[in-house]
Amino acid sequence: MSRVRRMYMDGRFGQQHLRIARPPADVPPKRPLVCFHLSPSSSHIYQQFLEEMSRDRLAVAPDTPGFGESDPPPALPTIHDYALAMADLLDILELETVDLMGYHTGSKIAVELALIRPERVRHLVLVSAPVYTPEELARQWETMGRPRELQADGSHLLEGWRAIFAWRGPGMTLEMVQKEFAESLRGGPISWWGHHAAFHYHHQEQLPKVEQPVLILCPEDDLAIPTRRAAAYVRNGRLLELPGKGHGMLTLYPAEIAQIVRAFVDEAG
């Protein structure tokens, strides 16, 4: 039986849903790992990965407010707002110190949380942490940073499906694409809020402020090129290329990715 369980907590924006996996009772636990998902998805992407990481530590993946099964903020949020919600989660779960992992938008939430609660964050693992050119950022705003107009013929749904299908990772099945597509729709009319917040937050400005060790994982996904630029802004860390990996890798290769993450967050104790 899976160790991953689902629960709700009362946060600043209402109920916040999370997945949580605890280590076996006979294993001395290591520092907890808290994982933030990409937009407009949910913590479902970490399901198998949490199982692997919980072999020797508490592993947690919340749904960002407004996504998955978490209640939304009352108005357009910023990355800082999301990070404050995650800081509340640390308080409620009584997690004194943690390591953080963030994927796409989640990478920015992780960085901001490390900056506003530096005494509680020990390591950062950032999956696809983009540093955009002005032209790239403009394209992101145009395609994802605004509401998608609903069409009576459902063509907006086909557009969303095609986007996820186009950037599916190696080995990602149609069933996995379907699951991700369904999760992307759960935010309804505010599904674009995560991207809106992310595009206002710039790694080239914030990463140089981070003092904790940082590992940037660079799979072959839609943000590979801008992610490689982020390495120049990390004060204490490195970038690791993940050839042959892409979206879906946490489901397809959870043990392999967990081994990489575990080695990094445990290397300095």
Give an overview in words.
This protein is of the alpha/beta class. It has a single domain (4-266), classed as Alpha/Beta hydrolase fold, catalytic domain (Rossmann fold, 3-Layer(aba) Sandwich). It is built from eleven helices and eight strands. The chain has helices at residues 47-53, 79-92, 105-116, 134-144, 155-166, 174-184, 193-199, 203-206, 224-230, 249-252, 254-266; strands spanning 4-11, 14-21, 30-36, 57-62, 98-103, 121-127, 214-219, 237-242. It is globular and about 55 Å long. The relative contact order is 0.16. The model has no long low-confidence stretch (mean pLDDT 96).
Essential attributes:
eight-stranded mixed beta sheet; 38% helix; globular; 8 strands; Rossmann fold; 269 residues; alpha/beta
For the CA atoms, what is the radius of gyration?
17 Å
Low-confidence stretches: none
Main β-sheet description: 8 strands, mixed
Order of helices and strands: EEEHEHEHEHHHHHEHEHH
Q: How would you sum up the global shape?
A: globular
Q: How many domains?
A: 1
Secondary-structure-based class equals alpha/beta
List the topology elements:
Blueprint: E1 4-11, E2 14-21, E3 30-36, H1 47-53, E4 57-62, H2 79-92, E5 98-103, H3 105-116, E6 121-127, H4 134-144, H5 155-166, H6 174-184, H7 193-199, H8 203-206, E7 214-219, H9 224-230, E8 237-242, H10 249-252, H11 254-266
Parallel strand pairs: 3-4, 3-5, 5-6, 6-7, 7-8
Antiparallel strand pairs: 1-2, 2-4
